[in-house]
Amino acid sequence: MKITKLSYKVLFGVAVLLIVIWTLVPFYWVLISAISPRVELYAKPPHWIPENPTLKPFYTVLVTGEGFRGGGGVSAAELIRKGLYNSLVIAIVTTTMVMVFSPMLGYAFSRLRFPGRNLWFMLFIGIIALPSWPVLIGLFSQFSYLRLLDTKIGLILLSFTFRIPFETWFMKGYFEAVPREVEDAALIDGCTHLGTLFRVSIPMVMPGLIAVSIISFLFTWNMFSAPLVLTYTLKSKPLTVAITEFIGQYFVHWDLMSAAAIIAIIPPVVVVLVFQKFIVKGLSAGAVKA
């Protein structure tokens, strides 16, 4: 029996170690690629520890902005700055819209009684199951017709459309965890349903609202496939897509692309570290209810 428990612990430890290695090694290699001189970066066998580390790639993509092959006349710094600005605008506006509409929709599906409520809810959250790539084929045609191609507004509407069913589903669960007696007391005191929502219900589910807002921000920030298809200039390309400009036809600027990737990782990491207690508390505060 003791041997079995020991074997289980050993296997569990090995599995955890493999998962950690699988997760961290790619990130470590990106970091090494960002601080290694090109001589070491392209050396064989690869250098896992740079002998002459440098921050020149970061300085290039943030300050000096020297040109690069395949840049189309755009400097590296301009590319990253515009991509960073576009990502921030798209992510912040989308998250704000989610924070406004998801609690109202979640409250409506949780508390209000109207014909076909369950059917409408199932159709609404059915958007979650839609695969992204096949949908993009039709979206490209629709975006072209509506003149939303290569616009930040188009990406905001797209991200919001795909996020709002998931966040509404979560918010519905949070509201169902709130005792109805509290809301009934507010209604008896003269509050409308809208007043009860903003004065009573939302403050009680605030950790959950913050959690789904952070998840929405992270999802929007990390969008790649849709912006890759629906944008083609720096006017609206987010950072995740702008980084691909470092890939030319005959040459890849691995050092600049890796430095830009590290920069793209920083905002979501900071958001998670700052709001991690809200994420844990919010995701465990009744979101499992349907």
TrEMBL record:
Output one GO BP term.
transmembrane transport
> PROSITE patterns, alphabetically?
ABC_TM1 (PS50928)
Where the record annotates domain ABC transmembrane type-1, the positions are 84-275
Instruction: Give TM regions.
Output: 12-35, 84-107, 119-141, 209-230, 250-275
Family annotation (InterPro entries): BP-dep_ABC_trans_perm, MetI-like, MetI-like_sf
Q: Which Pfam families match?
A: BPD_transp_1
Cite the entry's keywords alphabetically: Cell membrane, Membrane, Sugar transport, Transmembrane, Transmembrane helix, Transport
| Membrane topology designation | Multi-pass membrane protein
Q: Which Gene3D superfamilies match?
A: MetI-like
Task: Kindly list the GO CC terms recorded for this protein.
Answer: plasma membrane
Q: Where is the signal peptide?
A: none
> Subcellular location, in the record's words?
Cell membrane
Concerning its family, UniProt says: Belongs to the binding-protein-dependent transport system permease family. MalFG subfamily.
The record's section on PANTHER family has: MALTOSE TRANSPORT SYSTEM PERMEASE-RELATED (PTHR32243), MALTOSE_MALTODEXTRIN TRANSPORT SYSTEM PERMEASE PROTEIN MALG (PTHR32243:SF50)
Kindly provide the name given to this protein in its UniProt entry.
Binding-protein-dependent transport systems inner membrane component
User: Which species does this protein come from?
Assistant: Vecturithrix granuli
